[in-house]
Amino acid sequence: MDIKSIRNFSIIAHIDHGKSTLADRMLEVTGTIEKRKMKDQVLDSMELERERGITIKMQPVRMEYSYNNEKYILNLIDTPGHIDFSYEVSRALKAVEGSILLIDATQGVQAQTLTTLQMARDSGLVIIPVLSKVDSPLAMIDEVKMEVAVLLDIDPDSILTVSGKTGYGVKDLLDELIKRIPPPKEKTEIISTSSGAQALVFDFKYDNHRGVIVYVRVIEGEFYKGESLLFAVSFEKFICLEVGTFSPEEEPKDKIGTGEIGYIVTGIKKPGIASVGDTITYSKKPADALPGYMKPSPVVWASVYPESQDDFPNLKQALSRLRLSDSSFSYEEESSGTLGRGFRCGFLGMLHLEIIVERLNREFDIELIVTMPSITYKVLLRNGKEETIYSPHLFPDDGNVLKIYEPWVNVKIITPSVYTSLLVPFLYDHEGIVKLTENFGDNRSSIDLEMPLRELMRNFFDDMKSITSGYASISYEMKDYKSADVVRMDIIVANEAMPAFCRVVSRRRVEDEAKLQVEKLQKIIPRQQFAFKIQAKALGRIISSESVSAFRKDVLMHGSKVVGGGDVSRKKKLLEKQKKGKKRMQSSAKINISHEVFLKMMRSSNK
């Protein structure tokens, strides 16, 4: 296949703007998938993706399409839309020359769209703006076209319109892709100091039988089955077991060459060898490593422990396997006196954390204890030492702390103007400092602010959506560390501190948070054979307390008959015996809390 007949592109959009549906119609129009085999969200292969209706992992697919009696290869990389998975998007953009900017005609440009658009521009991609859902009675085609035209400084008539539901405009879009997006550049146009084959690794997965399978964009040369290849960065040699493309399933080929997107089966089963951004080249004539990707920085931290310590080796293996399919989360071993051995894990956001925990539970069948999510704090102690704290239960007592620093974020919110006045007190409650409010398109406002990352995790997204009836959107980027006024809050169940429920909260909100967490846990924790208390402790004292009543077992009943035939002394003896038994249980009580309780506590309060 001539390199001039290849077009590599991605679709970038805000979550729920019809990206996966448009990809489905493209696969239909190009005949990549037969109609009888077609299903919704065909590129979302993960069970969780299909359940939630979101894209979590990027997915490449190769389509063949005829235009002006010439055959073209269209390589699409479908990308996630949620802000937690923007790292997936950044990797996809490095492997393509152009991108479809998909905007919902019923909603207009969203905050996350602006962030992703900037990433595409920084990568030097050709942007093709497209309005989706134009068949909807709620579509505001002319207004949104003007919004996009102003944003991109283009003619509104150059903006395409499609419907992923009906297929309207999809063929025209494919024609425009071929006309507007350039073919991959020849090697002579790419600055390099060496000759030889080079393929950039933009993703990979693990297969029990075939080892690591790397997803690559071939920059130069050709790769064949049976050749001796090399990871240019990790310097690991391997024999290529298979090469191929995605249709969208893996389809073996004789070779993959310059400009193509495909996969290489390495046979490597050791973790840590393959990495996103590495370069694959020939071991006999190695080429230079290509510029790769910046490593993602975790934003949210949580500790994960197996419910049974017997499952610790299984959890370790599961995390290692999962890391092979999602390189954006990190983990390292830690131990707790109460919870035993586990792992401290770093995630890109709250949804990312929830997805990883759910996958560990489903794919590896491990029951987990997950600590309350936290961020990284830098703490200056009174003895002059500075510590970096990742887990709330390791946060020092208030009396030992001299100064605390926490990360802040720059936030952009786009909302209908009618909700702006309602958002102001909400932002103040979350310690937000509004920097700029301006008009953004037709009856919409853009709010720029900065706030502590800690507050962004305090149910911010759900509450904002509730206040604005679901119309507001948000994007954020990490900023510097600033001074923080926070304290550690412990949750005590039946006189035992539970490290998994420990959290760091704002001093001004400690009483509200204590009451909220205690009441929430009281509602979801199972009752026991004895009564016990749930308490919140901070600043050296108990701030909130609730009791959980015991199950009442009627010891006077045996089957359907009353014990003792109504004899009062016999009844009193049985009741006294039950009372002493419950007292013994209470004094040596240890409550086992299930995986579901930890998950419910981790999620936001309205779920």
Characterization of this structure:
This protein has 607 residues and is of the alpha+beta class. It has 5 domains: 3-180, 3-Layer(aba) Sandwich (Rossmann fold), CATH 3.40.50; 194-282, Beta Barrel (Elongation Factor Tu (Ef-tu), domain 3); 300-370, Elongation Factor G (Translational Gtpase), domain 3 (Alpha-Beta Plaits, 2-Layer Sandwich), CATH 3.30.70.870; 378-484, Alpha-Beta Plaits, CATH 3.30.70.240; 487-602, Elongation factor 4, C-terminal domain (Alpha-Beta Plaits). 25% of the residues lie in helices and 33% in strands. It has 14 helices and 33 strands.
Keywords:
607 residues; alpha+beta; Rossmann fold; Elongation Factor Tu (Ef-tu), domain 3; Alpha-Beta Plaits; 5 domains; eight-stranded antiparallel sheet; six-stranded mixed sheet; 33 strands; 25% helix
Domain count, please report it. Answer: 5
Note poorly predicted spans: 188-194
CATH superfamily of the largest domain: P-loop containing nucleotide triphosphate hydrolases
> Biggest sheet, open or closed, and with what strands and sense?
8 strands, antiparallel
User: Strand arrangement, largest sheet?
Assistant: 11-10-16-7-8-15-12-13
Measured distance between first and last alpha carbons:
52 Å
- Please write the CATH class name of the largest domain: Alpha Beta
Put simply, the count of helices is 14
Helix % is 25-40%
**Per the principal axes of the C-alpha atoms, what is the gross shape?**
globular
Looking at the structure, the CATH topology of the largest domain is Rossmann fold
- CATH architectural grouping of the largest domain: 3-Layer(aba) Sandwich
Q: Percent of residues in beta strands?
A: 25-35%
Average of pLDDT: 81
How many beta-strand elements?
Answer: 33
Radius of gyration: 28 Å
